[in-house]
Design a protein that fits this description.
A seven-stranded mixed sheet has the order 9-8-7-10-11-13-12, with helices on both faces. A six-stranded parallel sheet has the order 3-2-1-4-5-6, with helices on both faces. About 5% of the residues have low confidence. Helix 11 links the parallel strand 2 and strand 3. By secondary structure, the protein is of the alpha/beta class. The protein folds into four domains: 148 residues, no CATH class; 182 residues, 3-Layer(aba) Sandwich (Rossmann fold), CATH 3.40.50; 155 residues, NAD(P)-binding Rossmann-like Domain (Rossmann fold, 3-Layer(aba) Sandwich), CATH 3.40.50; 133 residues, no CATH class. Keywords: Membrane, Transmembrane, Transmembrane helix.
């Protein structure tokens, strides 16, 4: 009402000044007024709205709802004022209310000049304004309702006419922030903002023109989800995300099948790795049939696989089948967060790394520390050749160290020296392991450990220059804990520093580019010499192309190579010089074809502007001169050609590219292996296990009962006295025999989503486990990371992994009774 009074008073004052009479307010309320008063009113309303909207325009606020509500209040206020003197013999209040309500359906009552002396002769300006506002609010509300009802049809129209699309599957509460960040990354402003902070004014001016001309990163993000009523969708729509309802694993039967040439990326990020791989296969088949247009960047298919070793195996296998138009990769929350922690650790340059706990995050972090160190070695010869030593503290840590060395056998060049201390974690153990160092970096890899924060603070008080990281389930990603001790806290997240993580192949391409910039420096004369954050997609993909082309071509040699060892203990087999020579011409041809697809043509000198792109090397190798020509008769200007390279020069330059790519791949842990495995040793694929169906027998596997929802912070001991913590929406599960024995130690937490997808209800609150698993014989002594903690397997056990990445051990006697093999 205060806002309405201000809006009424402003045009009233203008009317009074223009009429030079103190009766301006009466002219507005009881006379017809003039058009200036109406115009002034709406200009004032627009001004007030802009004052409210401009500072908040980037926030997720319901501006339409606020505007409609304010408009309705003003319309009711002005209508009541205008109709009040015109009630006549009827009840004044209720008559005014009725007449005002008719304004919202477009039926304005006109009693003016007919009822009494106090009623205006003609319709006053207040009622005219109220009539316009009421009808506008009513129509706006009707349109809003229709848009909400047909939101999916509207999204399909966006999808049909959008120039570029990014497809996402796996919308759950955990992935919702990732999808928001993905939409922000593709709104076309990420690199458009980066040039403003660049210090070199010459580069800054030229980069601005390139970025604005290319309109980099613009694409509509489309979520494929079976439930259009998912409550998370409302917030995502405000961020510009579109919805396509349907089965994520059946993309070919959806509306998206009509737009494969416009898809730039597919993100399969559900919690179920099996579902993600199915989506990736479907997307690969769909996109492979409909190649994108010439000159476009390769389509990325990114799959979430939480277990880092499985992700690495998928990455290597998929790269060998990727094409120049489709590139696949895998990532997971533990890998993304471990990379952040490893980068932080390397930046602080510690003289020892102390990891606490034999957990899967510890294993993943070890791999990422080794990978980050390899990248630093590839970028700088001044970086220490040896990574800081690593000390593992906690029960079963020797098995984690052995597992790390086994995993690093794929890379063939682990740079870490790992020592394990198999004793309980304590301040004394940490101090004993790091007492001789001045700059320790301590990472508590245990999740949901109540004492982690206190232990981290007390430990770092013993060191002058120490740093530490501990787990905090209240956050996502890595952030400072706000103390002055150099402490950080983490929790696995799909995002990296609040944005979309860099996939492994683009990460390798960045390292290759940074090597180039470190060698030749930044230049404003060539886009290819800009820093990575300002580099156009053309040059980013060009670096990626060089790596992927070499990786794919080694499989076509006379003695073919693969990038994953097919035998246990198999040693890398580097390429001989004659084999490297066999890769040179395919690389030169691939480079030439890539440039031509992006509009480059042959020219006597290299020219790179927005409108003209020429290079003297853009010829088929056989068409290049054997000696440097004196003139260029084929060039329009027929001028001298000092930049025209010969066949020998191009061969040497291209061979240097191939050798550099092979060295970079080796430094990043990718080395070639012979492709043919032996007959006696099982391959790694065979060691992963076989598929089984759960067939629970009542006599062997009693029923499971879910007694009650759990508080989010509830803890208790379970089974072997391992501490259990309920996080999120959990239920307390108890077995039938435990209820009969009244044994509280056999009670365990089950997330609500897991209860719905891994159990089948067979009675009142009675359930049985269901679904498929992958299982294999356990190797005696191996460490298995289960949801109850890390366990050491014995000879008579099976390692079982369900469809959602969880794994556990089961005795060999019990396993065949509750599982049936699947062909």
């Amino acid at each position: 009402m205060g806002l309405a009074t201000v809006l009424v008073g402003f045009p009233s004052t203008i009317s009074a000044v223009l009429a030079q009479t103190p009766e301006g307010l009466r002219l507005l309320l009881n006379r017809h007024g003039d058009y200036l008063a109406i115009a002034a009113f709406f200009l004032a309303a627009l001004g007030v709205f802009l004052v409210y909207w401009v500072p908040r325009r980037n926030q997720g606020r319901p501006f339409a709802l606020v505007t409609g509500f304010v408009g309705a209040v003003i319309a009711i206020f002005l209508g009541m004022v205008g109709y009040w003197p015109c009630a006549g013999e009827e009840a004044t209040f209720w008559t005014s209310v009725f007449d005002t309500m008719t304004l919202f359906v477009g039926a304005a009552h006109d009693p003016f000049g007919e009822v009494g002396d106090s009623c205006a002769e003609v319709m006053p300006v207040s009622v005219q304004i109220a009539r316009i506002l009421a009808l506008a609010v009513a129509l706006g509300a009707l349109i809003a309702v229709l848009l909400r009802l047909f939101a999916e049809q509207r999204d399909r129209l966006y999808i049909r006419f959008a120039k570029h699309l990014v497809i996402v599957t796996g919308l759950i509460e955990e992935t919702e922030p990732f999808i928001r960040a993905l939409a922000k990354a593709h709104d076309g402003t990420s690199r458009a903002k980066a040039w403003r902070d660049f210090p070199d004014p010459v580069v800054k001016a030229q980069v601005r023109g390139w970025i604005e001309a290319e309109q980099i990163d613009r694409a509509h993000v489309v979520v494929v989800h079976p439930n259009r009523l998912n409550p998370l969708l409302a917030g995502l729509r405000q961020a510009g995300v579109k919805l396509l309802t349907g089965n994520p694993t059946d993309l070919s039967r959806m509306g998206i099948a009509s737009a494969p040439k416009r898809i730039r990326a597919v993100y399969a990020i559900a919690a179920d790795s099996g579902e993600n791989i199915s989506v990736a296969r479907e997307a690969y088949a769909l996109l492979g049939k409909n190649q994108p247009p010439q000159g476009s960047a390769p389509v990325k298919i990114l799959v979430r696989i939480d277990e880092s070793r499985d992700a690495e195996e998928y990455r290597r296998q998929s790269m060998t089948r990727s094409t120049r138009t489709i590139i696949e990769d895998a990532f997971g929350p533990q890998q993304v967060t471990a990379q952040e922690v490893a980068t932080l650790a390397m930046r602080e340059q510690p003289d020892v790394l102390v990891l606490l706990g034999a957990t899967s995050f510890a294993t993943t972090l070890l791999d990422e520390i080794a990978q980050t160190h390899r990248e630093r070695l590839a970028l700088s010869s001044e970086f220490p050749k040896l990574a800081p030593p690593v000390v593992l503290i906690g029960a079963h840590t020797p098995s984690v160290a052995a597992d790390h060395m086994f995993r690093q056998a794929w890379y063939g060049n682990s740079t870490l020296s790992v020592e394990s201390v198999d004793e309980p974690i304590s301040e004394a153990a940490i101090h004993s392991a790091a007492a001789q160092y001045r700059r320790p970096f301590v990472v508590d890899c245990r999740e949901n450990e109540p004492t982690s924060a206190l232990l981290a603070h007390r430990t770092l008080q013993l060191f002058e220059l120490g740093h530490g990281v501990y787990h905090d389930p209240r956050i996502r990603g890595l952030e400072s804990d706000g103390s002055l001790l150099g402490l950080h806290r983490y929790a696995p997240s799909l995002m990296q520093e609040g944005s979309i993580p860099e996939d492994r192949w683009m990460r390798a391409a960045r390292v290759l580019h940074e090597q180039y910039v470190a060698t030749y420096g930044t230049t404003a004369l060539r886009q290819g010499g800009l820093p990575w954050e300002l580099l156009s997609d053309f040059y980013r993909i060009s670096n990626l192309r060089a790596l992927t082309n070499v990786m794919q071509k080694v499989g076509t040699l006379e003695v073919p190579r693969v990038w994953t060892p097919q035998l246990e203990g198999q040693q890398p087999t580097p390429l001989k010089d004659i084999e490297v020579n066999q890769l040179v011409l395919p690389e030169q041809e691939d480079w030439r074809a890539y440039y031509e697809r992006h509009g480059w043509v042959w020219g006597c000198r290299r020219v790179e502007t927005t409108d003209q792109k020429e290079d003297p090397k853009i010829k088929r190798f056989g068409a290049l001169p054997k000696v440097t020509p004196d003139t260029c008769p084929t060039h329009p200007n027929s001028e001298d050609c000092p930049d025209q390279p010969t066949q020998n020069q191009v061969f040497k330059q291209t061979k240097a590219t191939v050798v550099g790519a092979l060295k970079l791949l080796e430094s990043l842990g990718y080395q070639p292996y012979l492709a043919t495995p032996g007959d006696s040793t099982p391959t790694l694929a065979q060691r992963r296990g076989s598929r089984f169906l759960r067939v629970h027998d009542e006599a062997v596997a009693p029923l499971t009962y879910f007694s009650q929802p759990l508080a989010k912070s509830e803890t208790w001991t379970f089974g072997r006295n391992s501490l259990m913590v309920s996080v999120g929406d959990c239920w307390a599960a108890e077995s039938q025999d435990a209820l009969e024995r009244n044994d509280p130690k056999t009670r365990w937490p089950v997330r609500a989503v897991d209860r719905n997808r891994t159990y089948i209800q067979v009675g009142d609150n009675a359930f049985r486990r269901a679904g498929h698993v992958t299982a294999r014989r356990a190797e005696p002594g191996e460490v298995v990371h289960t949801t109850e903690g890390s366990e050491v397997a014995t000879e008579n056990q099976w390692v079982i992994r369900d469809e959602y990445g969880k794994q556990w051990l089961m005795s060999a006697d019990r396993f065949p009774k509750v599982h049936r093999g699947i062909a």
